[in-house]
Design brief:
The chain is α/β, with parallel strands linked by helices and about 425 residues long. Helices cover about 40% and strands about 15% of the residues. Helix 12 links the parallel strand 10 and strand 11. The two termini are about 15 Å apart.
């Protein structure tokens, strides 16, 4: 008897693969894993990350992307309706989403049968039509909504003393789902708000399986420590939402100018763009004007951290992976951009300033100007030359968050209940 299929549907970026695979790893032996990408661009970005791609191939023989849908008017109509939350649960919206891709044709072409589907795993915010299509086909097939990225959320209903957080909730619970997979209670409240209290039985807490030592070993090849080159990793994010283009350019130029002004030798800078690649063209344009040893890379995040000596982050989830590996790290985010418009920045009434999530959780220090980044690079460069650069520990609160959670029994129980007669 052939195994049933568990479908992992990747709709936005390969960070979804990075977060979902460690969860699936706990239950994969009983099922055939199918990994489907929403478009060729995301699929190709996975192929560029050779370590993660090879790991996916160990999980699944069925890895493919959905061909581009060419009807521009139809795509534009779906896009508009997605923006109008009021339409999200209407029959018209569901029908349009289902028809935006011919899933029956795609499944047939890949020799996959819908009736052989055991479960669908899709990110918690995805409005893609496949979830509606599966729900329409068979309501007994469970839809699991997982987190598309890893970070330590700020629970707006359980803040530290003197802090408050203005927060709006986008209504993800209106999307088709059976269960949510959140790392912890803070993540659930961060994205669903008070709805959590109503659907608590539908939430499964997974902890952070991607940070368990057994899993990390799948993604890291140990580097040769005998190295004379000081390596800096800069993880960037796209401008336009949390900060503007001027802020982005200031941060990148401050990092590169500080290296030039300090006249440091034997340095290599790796830039890791956000998976959405919004900032890629501007980043390349800036660094092309510098005569430095620079590489833009899509290498696996954990492997990059293993290969480098210090990490400079522009408010991405990579800072948390950096903390797990105890790297020397700092977040570079301008104070002027920390406002209530950016929903994850709590306000500290005592200090009379906004805090970044990394400061709030004591994951990393935040710096916001040229002098501070110059000092950070210089101090750690000198330590590297003296071979005295050391690991940087994380707070006890992070240790508590990293406590393992036994969720696989619950997942297996749900999947076993779905056995068809």
């Amino acid at each position: 008897m052939s195994k049933k299929n568990i479908i992992i549907f990747v709709t936005k970026h390969i960070g979804e693969v990075d977060n979902c695979l460690p969860i699936i790893n706990k239950i994969k032996k009983n099922y055939n894993i199918v990994i489907i990408f929403n478009n060729k661009h995301i699929y190709n970005s996975l192929r560029e990350d050779k370590i993660l791609f090879n790991l996916c191939k160990k999980f699944s023989k069925d890895i493919f992307y959905i061909p581009k849908f060419n009807n521009f008017f139809f795509k534009f109509l779906v896009f508009l309706l997605k923006k109008l939350i009021v339409f999200n649960n209407t029959s018209i919206f569901k029908k349009l989403l289902r028809q935006s891709n011919n899933f029956d044709k795609i499944f047939k072409k890949k020799n996959l049968k819908k009736q052989n589907t055991k479960a669908l795993f899709i990110s918690f915010s995805s409005q893609h039509g496949l979830a509606y299509d599966i729900r329409e086909y068979d309501k007994k097939i469970p839809i699991f909504r997982f987190q598309e990225f890893t970070h330590f959320s700020i629970n707006p209903f359980n803040l530290k003393k003197n802090c408050y957080l203005k927060r709006t909730f986008p209504g993800y619970e209106n999307l088709p789902y059976d269960y949510y997979l959140f790392s912890n209670n803070d993540d659930a409240y961060q994205y669903l708000g008070k709805v959590v209290d109503k659907i608590r039985k539908k939430i499964i807490y997974t902890g952070y399986p991607k940070f368990e030592n057994k899993w990390i070993k799948n993604l890291i090849v140990k580097r040769n420590k005998k190295n004379s080159i000081f390596k800096i990793l800069v993880s960037t994010r796209g401008y336009g939402v949390e900060f503007n283009q001027n802020s982005f350019e200031y941060i990148i130029r401050s990092i590169l100018n500080s290296i030039i002004d300090l006249n440091l030798k034997n340095i290599k800078i790796y830039f890791k763009p956000h998976p959405h690649l919004v900032e890629y063209k501007l980043l390349k344009k800036i660094i092309d004007n510098y005569n430095l040893n620079i590489e833009i890379t899509m290498m696996s995040s954990l492997q990059l951290l293993e290969n480098t000596d210090v990490h400079i982050d522009m408010k991405t989830s990579l800072i948390f992976e950096s903390a797990i590996l105890k790297k020397k790290r700092v977040q570079f985010f301008l104070k002027k951009d920390m406002t209530e418009k950016v929903h994850q920045f709590p306000f500290d009434a005592k200090k009379k300033e906004f805090l970044s999530p990394t400061e709030y959780h004591k994951v990393a220090e935040n710096i916001s100007n040229y002098k501070e980044i110059k000092d950070f690079i210089y101090i750690n460069y000198k330590k590297f030359k003296k071979k005295s650069i050391s690991t940087e520990k994380y707070s006890t609160s992070i240790k508590r968050k990293l406590a393992k959670k036994k969720f696989e029994q619950k997942l297996n129980q749900i999947l076993n209940e779905n056995k068809k007669s």
